[in-house]
Fold:
Amino acid sequence: MMDAQSLPHARATDPLTSHLAGVQAAYSDSDQRVSMIVAGILSDGVARTDEEITVAASVAGLTETADRLRHGRLMLQKQGRLLLVGKRHTECGSLANVWTLNQEVKP
Structure:
């Protein structure tokens, strides 16, 4: 379920097409599809960072961008379907959240 803060929006000065695109993005089937991809990647029980989710998608031959995969992970997180299980360093040394599926919540 989306709240007002999570809905895409455009500035008041933007053209009508920008406003329509925001509404369309809010209800896009691709959002559901990308969250299903992230859930599928995490369904093997291996906890992953966003970076590791992106690598797993690439290895599986998927062409979703890192941004889209993070958006899918965020959707799952907001639905309570993910658990934050810790933090670890990414390849570049940044500290990142580590996620796993919440087995108590079913899609």
